[in-house]
Amino acid sequence: MKIIKKISEIKEIISNFKKNKKEINLIPTMGSIHAGHLSLLSEANKYDGINIISIFVNPAQFNDLNDFNNYPNTLEADIKILSKTKCKMIFAPSIKEIYPLGIKTEKAVFKYRDILCDLFRLGHFDGVTTIVKILLDLIEPSKIFFGEKDFQQLKIIEQLIFQNNLKINLIRCPSIRDSYGMSLSSRYSTFSKDEKSKFKKCAQIIDANLLEVKKDFNHKILDNIKKELRSYGISKIDYIEVRNEEDLSLSINNERTRLFIAFYLNKVRVIDNFLLY
Ligand code: PAF
User: Fold this and answer.
1) Is 37 among the residues known to form the active site?
2) Cα 143 to ligand 1 centre (Å)
3) How far is the CA of 30 from the centre of ligand 1 (A)?
4) Does domain 191-267 match CATH 3.40.605.10?
5) Intervals of CATH 3.30.1300.10 along the chain
6) What are the tens digits of pLDDT across the range 101-154?
7) Taking the model in full, what pTM does it have?
8) Ligand 1 pocket test: which of 132, 185, 271 has the largest number of ligand atoms within 8 Å of its C-beta?
9) Which end of the chain is more exposed for a tag (fewer CB within 10 A), N or C?
10) Best substitution site from 33, 109, 130, 150 to test ligand 1's pocket, by max atoms within 8 Å of Cβ?
């Protein structure tokens, strides 16, 4: 497995792939590789082409410096995990390589904004679209793989591809969930034992109410989830909303909708979404 850290090197490799008419499948990550990322890799394996996993903890998408500093940075462990898979290439540049002139973002996508995470993590999605566009320009993939856990991110990247007229197929991959039904996330690797058991309890609260939402949607159930989470000590809940998965508009039924949820368990922001149909 090749580990590439330099832009000059990845450019040369990509140009050779292109000369040889090889297709590229890109799986962008911020590392701390878990079963969710590996499922993206398995999906990529179903298609022709060379799989490249990028690992870059992108400072531009952290609206809070503490959050950036606390984000797990586990390149050596990630390399070990990925070396046991069919992954042939990791692109793991430094911050200087990606942002030689300093960290800068551009607001490129205006659709699917001012709702959900965008209201609570100002500038986050500008950081995400900035780094994804840099990666797409460098690696020129024909397919890119995203998990449905970060559903708003996925929609914004679809829009980025559409707006720029890129011939890139975004492959959506369902969340990989733990035994309590929550999507896996690199952020949860920092949970203490106590936080793990709190997380399990929160998952049970969500799961029990989810059955009710699916049976008979009404706003009282959403209030109930908030109330139960609060009574369990979760004081910061960013949102619990039902939205249509096509346009992310608020919805009052459960046709093609998902329950979107974001709250803090101590310092860790938990986000997830659950199919309601
Ligand atoms: O979902 C992530 O891990 C990141 O937001 C991404 C897409 C790799 C961009 O840094």
Assistant:
1) yes
2) 15
3) 6
4) no
5) 191-267
6) 999 999 999 999 999 999 999 999 999 999 999 999 999 999 999 999 999 999
7) 0.97
8) 132
9) C
10) 150
**Ligand 1 atom 6: residue of nearest CA:** 29
CA–centroid distance, 128 to ligand 1, in Å, is: 6
Separation between Cα atoms, residue 272 and residue 86, nearest integer Å: 28
For residue 204 the two structure tokens come to: 């049970």
> Looking at residues 188-214, what average pLDDT do you find?
95
Cβ within 8 Å of residue 260, ≥6 positions away: 116, 151, 152, 239, 240, 241, 242, 243, 271, 272, 273
Kind of pairing, strands 2-4 and 89-91?
A: parallel
**Which residue blocks in the chain are alpha helix, DSSP H?**
7-19, 35-45, 65-70, 75-83, 95-98, 117-120, 124-139, 151-163, 193-215, 219-231
Distance CA 84, CA 114 (A): 41
**Ligand 1 atom closest to Cα of residue 157:** 7
DSSP state of 250: B
Which pair of tokens denotes residue 219? 């706003």
Tokens of 226: 């908030």
2-173: CATH topology: Rossmann fold (3.40.50)
CATH 3.40.50.620 domain extents, the chain: 2-173
DSSP string for 136-194: HHHH--SEEEEEGGGHHHHHHHHHHHHHTT---EEEEEPPPB-TTSPBP-GGGGG--HH
